[in-house]
Amino acid sequence: xxxxxxxxxxxxxxxxxxxxxxxxxxxxxxxxxxxxxxxxxxxxxxxxxxxxxxxxxxxxxxxxxxxxxxxxxxxxxxxxxxxxxxxxxxxxxxxxxxxxxxxxxxxxxxxxxxxxxxxxxxxxxxxxxxxxxxxxxxxxxxxxxxxxxxxxxxxxxxxxxxxxxxxxxxxxxxxxxxxxxxxxxxxxxxxxxxxxxxxxxxxxxxxxxxxxxxxxxxxxxxxxxxxxxxxxxxxxxxxxxxxxxxxxxxxxxxxxxxxxxxxxxxxxxxxxxxxxxxxxxxxxxxxxxxxxxxxxxxxxxxxxxxxxxxxxxxxxxxxxxxxxxxxxxxxxxxxxxxxxxxxxxxxxxxxxxxxxxxxxxxxxxxxxxxxxxxxxxxxxxxxxxxxxxxxxxxxxxxxxxxxxxxxxxxxxxxxxxxxxxxxxxxxxxxxxxxxxxxxxxxxxxxxxxxxxxxxxxxxxxxxxxxxxxxxxxxxxxxxxxxxxxxxxxxxxxxxxxxxxxxxxxxxxxxxxxxxxxxxxxxxxxxxxxxxxxxxxxxxxxxxxxxxxx
Length: 549
Description:
Blueprint: H1 3-13, E1 24-36, E2 43-48, E3 57-60, E4 64-71, E5 79-82, E6 107-113, E7 119-125, E8 137-142, E9 156-165, H2 170-178, E10 188-191, E11 206-208, E12 213-220, E13 227-231, E14 236-241, E15 244-245, E16 250-251, E17 253-256, E18 261-267, E19 274-281, E20 289-296, H3 314-323, E21 350-361, E22 364-369, E23 372-373, H4 381-386, E24 411-412, E25 416-420, E26 424-431, E27 437-441, E28 446-453, E29 471-472, E30 474-477, E31 481-488, E32 493-499, H5 502-506, E33 510-516
């Protein structure tokens, strides 16, 4: 027994509680350009340690994750950890509102804890349109060993990163948006960075042993389109969605909206040969499709060219959304059942209605929330707030809790809304447009309690699921429909609410929620890290004393 263990044992005998820091895991990333060919034609992509998609982050609940990022690109870089709540630590969220960019030729070390979370997530670069050419990868959080999961251990588990693909450089796409035009339709769909040709030359993405069950972590990392994902000849048992164990139903296919992740179990119980996994666009005027091969280890014969069809219409997708239910008896990331949190019995203290819109401003395309199209100031809004110079960078609350009457009159400005710490808030998303919307809220998971066609009224609360709605971080809003979420704002910081559609987000369909604790305590929020990059008007200012004690 080592000296440290002996000391800990002696302290325990004396009745002294010993606190150990949670384990650390370390990664070093070298981010470069490189040649990739997702759709068969060579193009420049963004690689991490020479890989596309990027390397997996493999963690366990409560691990401290340290990622040292070396930016070898010719432009600034940031990474966000999509779905990781960054408890008390919005400094590490990797968006332009909280962090100065990592400049070319420099490095920055992210340090964050995957506190009280489990599930399937992904990371990606948030600067400009960089996600359009790579830099994304899977981030998984296992349950701690002492906390059971509601299914048997699979034989193995695999990532399935699906997304639409434009085949253009991110700089070209950015120029198109900056000129006031849309980036239009994508060129194809990829699965794990490629698309099977189907001519017999394709190597399998993964193999399965007959009779064994495998876990697949499926995330839509694309820019625009909902994708329907399905296995040829195999059902998928849904077990987890964005950190929540769910009631385990079997689905022939799943609509995966941009930014969303699902974890499924697939059993190799069919004739031993090759099978396709398929991802195809949904609710679009075009039909694009990506394929990947799954091979039985004792398989003989190619995959059938007859592919299972995708569903038609968005009503099917809405009904599937309604079928998802929280598993109330399964353990959460902490040693208590998910259903021990009775969100439906909490009084709502505030209702915010967000309505998206699109219009031309000075001849250029802009997207907005409640009439304001967000732009990032040179000084990140969180830094300005911490340094006490927010009034020189942006104005709080230029939008209200209700949308304006004229949604076509768009104001371009930083969009920062204040919320009160630890209040329980209802947020309504209304989508008057003909295209589906997908929203992510950083720093939180929320209860997706309802979604219906039409416009929202208070009477719609009668139809809310107040018992077992899934707790998740990304919600879709169907065309000419609304969706309702509920959450407690118990994570102090500056958090981005963003459209997951790259064009919409880049052209303003985002905002920041400032959640400050009146206690000014490090129990609620961490101070500015010593290593945090500074820029804008605070670059040459004296570093302020700790704000929280």
